[in-house]
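Response to reviewer comment R2.3. The reviewers asked that we include at least one raw input/output pair. We reproduce the pair for Amidohydrolase here without editing.
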Amino acid sequence: MDTALAQLVGSLTATREARKDLYVWFHQHPELSLQELQTASKIRSRLDALQLPHTQVGETGTVCVLDNGPGPVVAIRADIDGLPVQERSGKPYASTATQVDAVSGREEHVAHACGHDFHIMGVLGALEAFAVNRDCWRGTLVAVFQPAEEAYAGSRVMLANGIREAMPKPDVYLGQHVLPMLPAGVVGTHPGPFMSQAFSAQITVWGKGTHGSMPEKGVDPVLLASNIVTRLHTVVSREVQAKDTAVLTVGAIHSGVKANVIPETAELLVNTRAYTREVSDTLRSAITRIVEGECAAAGSPREPEITFYDEYPLTDNDPETTSRVRGAFDAHFGSDAADLDQIPASEDFSIIPDALDVPYTYWGLGGFKDWENAPGNHSPAFAPDLQPTLDRAAEAMIVAAAAWLVD
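Raw output as returned:
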């Protein structure tokens, strides 16, 4: 295996400049979720150039199946969408792209402020290495280029549009995410619950409008919303066990337009994170109970409306799969393989392998040499160092997949 793996990884040297140019293209042409038309076209063009068969799944999803005889089936996944963020990284190849959001109709600045361009290149680089070194391995490598991770839609879109038929059932499903909390080039693994389960809630409460000088003639939804916020922030400290971790954030309140007018409605936007389904269910139940109770206490003239959305599943890494990948990382990367703590961010990565009943693991990749001062994902300044991140993204995918495909 050592010789075969060295040949696979060694082939990255010959493709480095071409991969750099392609990375810069993806970085400069980010697209919003489910609008990744140029991105998908560029990926498919690269697969065509490598003479690799691929299938369109939905409008912007792509699956490539590289069959190299009997053996395990390993799927590697890359998310491909950008964010409505104006890049301020200072990179000479920084994105200046704009795009009209199909939902809001607004023109937005767009950037790969979460590193999905590196994810794309990690999978493309690994695919090419396996494609040109077929004598080194046996089995099937499946590459999944998934849209709309940021909109919590891409995995479901691919399932609804036939990803099951586009590929053989994998024996394992692998993915990675470039992160700021690891030194550049370090790969970090974590068995079990890794990225949090999450959901958001849009809450509308009703009052009774009146003049600001006559509050007794109305019901004040601003005060009602304020009481809800105060009460919601007791949930984690008073309803979640101390051994568990949870986050509840009220990110927005919208109500009223004038100082002397008590309005009729208020809207709150709430976001939660948890590492078990039970804690997530506790948060959901508490939100409903508190909102309904405060509305009743205030004499609200209508029942509140609570809509739960952006529901991300728990990323719960299969221990056996994670151990196998970690062993491969330790053997190949040495001190650049590390433990990684749980991350409170959330992902839709697990939806497809869960739907297919396939074990999975998802690891982190350090993207900044000055990692202690690195900006967080989704920041306008988030643009990882091109190297060693570009090479290590592909190398990590090769090493992980080779744990099944190379004898």
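The mean pLDDT is 97. Residues 252 and 269 are 5 Å apart (CA to CA). Further pairs are available on request from the corresponding author.
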